[in-house]
Structures are given as structure tokens and as C-alpha cells.
Write a structure and sequence with these properties.
About 20% of the residues lie in helices and about 35% in strands. By secondary structure, it is of the alpha+beta class.
Length: about 280
Amino acid sequence: MAVRTTDLDHVGVGVRDLDAAARTYERLGFTLSPFARHAGAVEPGGPTVQRATGNRCAMLGAGYIELIAIIDPKLPSGDMAARIAAREGIHIVAFGCDDPAATNAALKEAGFAARGTVYLERMVDTPQGPRMAKFDRVPVAASDVPEGVIFHLKHLTRDVIWQPQLLKHVNGAVALDEVVIHVADLDEAARRFERQLGVRGAGNGGTRTFNLPRGRCVLVDSTALPRADAPKAPAVVGITVTTSSLDQAEKVLTEKGVTHARTGARIAVDPKETCGVFLTFSPA
């Protein structure tokens, strides 16, 4: 049985100050969802409890960017508190799945320490009033995915978080197209991600690309990520967001004084402007 990954669902950017990070991403031209707190089970089948984290999200037509921070350090956070204390940047990658139970079984068959479906929820403001967003998450052991908190996810209430008014961004952003992960051993990581995602990687040199039904996961080694300011492997380092207008995205960045560089059909934003994320805009 192979894992069936549907898409690149979202990334989670761990930040120390959620209000400051929200201002940063609004400056980049993103519309953000209102603040929400997480609750959910700690273990599969466990009771729903309040979690330590809260978020605001840039919801895109496909996928989204989550800004996540520790709100109450006395509550359970997994290892997120330690990760954020070590560095701000992308710590979460969620891949979509249609059947969490089948995904868990396939991951176990592929040699991962998958431990069942873990329920997660958060109350979300909507034009009709507060509603509960619900998710089933399939985590694997951190030892299996040293690059970050990488899991499979099924949305149980998609309409609650993909609200039409949240999908309009002045930078023209329409989709989370790609996540870039810096790995220590490219061949080993490529074999591991092939088993986790259920698709074959392609590429040579220092890059392997996994094309999903929607979105891509790109693994790179140090030869393909030569920048000295990049997080050292293993780490999730960057994303590509598609925009309906590259010129509009550049106009927003320029007007807000955001350091960036345009090369052909891509705009790279300085990670000092993004809470440590190597953010690239490309045409839709």
C-alpha cells in the first residue's frame, strides 16, 4: 500500500511574537485571518485539550501560510516551543490526504513510526459568527522527519477557513506552490520522502523535486543552497507562492520598502523581511 498525498496543504512559520509577525506579513501584501487558538488531542484518541499555540493565516486559493506562536507556555506544544526558541522560520509542513486511517497504515507499512490520527481544532471568526475548524492529522515520529514537524492532514471543515474575503491579497497571491527543505544527505532524504509522499523524486545534482497532484516538495543539499544565512540542515527553509501579477507583487514590496530581488519571472524576498522564510513569488 502506497501513501496517497493529495497536495501541499500548508506550511507553519514559527514566530516568537505573533502580532509583530502579522504586521510583517501584512507588509508583504498578505491578508491574514483573525487570531485563533489551537485545541486538540495530544495522542490518538485522547481528549481535546487547550494547546499552547495560536495562529493567524494567509489563506490562498490553494494552500496557506500559517503564522504560529506559543501563546501559553504552560500548555502542551509538542516540541514547537523549543523549535521557535531555536529559530524563527518554517517548522511545519502539512501534506494533504483524503483518508487519514489509510495514510497512517501506509506510513507504517513504509517503515515510519506513525501513531494514528490526532484530532485538532480551532475556533474561527466568520461573517456568520464563530465556527469550529476541525482537522485530522497523521503525525510521524520526529526521528523519521528530522527536517521539521511534517505530517499528513485532512480538513473536515474546509469552508470554515477558506473564506472568500480572506483569499484576496494585494500582492496577488493565489497558491502555495512549493516548499523547499534543506537536507543533510540528499540520497537518503529522497528515498525517505519518496516513501512518505508516495511519489518519485526527480532531478540531479543537489536537488530532488517531488511533484504532487497539487504543489511540489523540493529537497536541496548545501550545494544547491549556498547562501550562508540559510538554516543548516536538516531544516525547512523556503516556499514559493504564485501570484496573479508579478508586477503587482513587486509594486507592493517596493512601496513598503521590503528588500527583494527580481530575476526574470521570480521575486526573492530577503529572509530578514519574512521571519526567516526564503520566500519567492512566481507567476501563476
